[in-house]
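Onboarding guide, step 5: your first structure request.
Type a short instruction followed by the sequence, for example:

Predict the 3D structure of this protein.
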Amino acid sequence: MSPDALTVNLLASAAVVAVVHTAIGPDHTLPFVMLSKARGWSLRKTLWITGLCGLGHVASSLVLGGLGVALGASTGTIEGLELSRGDLAAWAMVVFGAVYALWGLRQAIRARRGLELHRHDGDVHLHSHGTHEHSHAPHHGHSHLLTPPQRQPVDARSATFWSLFVVFVLGPCEPLIPLFFLPASEGNWWLAGWTGAVFALATLATMLLLVGLAVLGLEPLRLKFLERWAHSLAGAVIASSGLAVLYGGL
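The system replies with structure tokens like these:
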């Protein structure tokens, strides 16, 4: 095979593998879709968070692969490390989802006791309503009760983003390693770099496309009877995505 043919085949393979790997993995899309719906994120904010997490996801594997080649590690060794990272990331997603679901359950119970939960682009706060007055006229007569600082020492918005980001940085791109190693092990860092770049771009594009379409598709749905449980449902779906990776072979 000529060098030009090898380059074309390798880059095409990187693009196709990245798209398929991302599309069939629920952990690449569902967390963002569910959190966007639960926290009331705008489409723009959702895509920004998706892109940043996806970039960290691919970059961590590229850094590990580059270090492996530089240190003379074999492809099998790096793939073994990636598999271990995969299990760790999946369990981290399960824990994150479970904790978020429990937090959402607490918010739902508080809402049932007369505190109505409101979300404004990720900022969660409560409204206290009287038993006879529910009007939202210009002076609607209910107080805004922000969650007391001493009860939430960490900003919920920042905690949600950074927890998700760390989970995705831990998550490996196993299919990338052999594609990256093939030219890098022969000292062709130019082709290795382009392979990683194509894989990264295809992964990010697929994540953004699928998440964007899902968010837009769910936008018309106004399931008021589920709104109070939105955070709990989001956490449960995220935890299930992690379990699907662990036990579904995704």
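Each response can be followed by summary notes, for example: The longest strand covers residues 115-120.
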